[in-house]
Design goal:
91 residues; mainly alpha; 2 domains; 0% strand
Length: 91
């Protein structure tokens, strides 16, 4: 974590003269310094739930690996899951 004294030059570098006053201003500073945030996983709400449950411990790397296997072997369609669940419960 940056100390206040260390943050001042970074804030000025991002185009702000004064220290940030609120969260939105801090987010603007971070975006100016590092660029827009990129999603680590899917953006569809249903797929997001699947994604975070596909890896342990739940890190971007482990969830991505598990989610790729899930998509490849099962797909991410809700209907697909319910059909397979019915078939496996009938066996």
């Amino acid at each position: 974590m940056l100390a206040r004294a260390e943050m001042r030059p970074r804030v000025a570098e991002a185009g702000f003269d004064d220290p940030p006053k609120d969260v939105l201003e801090v987010l603007d500073i971070l975006e100016n310094l590092y660029g827009p945030q990129k999603a680590a996983g899917p953006t569809d709400p249903y797929e997001m739930i699947l994604y975070v449950n596909c890896g342990y411990p739940a890190t971007d790397v482990s969830c991505s690996k598990g989610f790729e296997v899930l998509k490849r072997e099962w797909g991410c369609n809700r209907r697909t899951f319910s059909q397979r669940q019915k078939r496996s419960s009938q066996s």
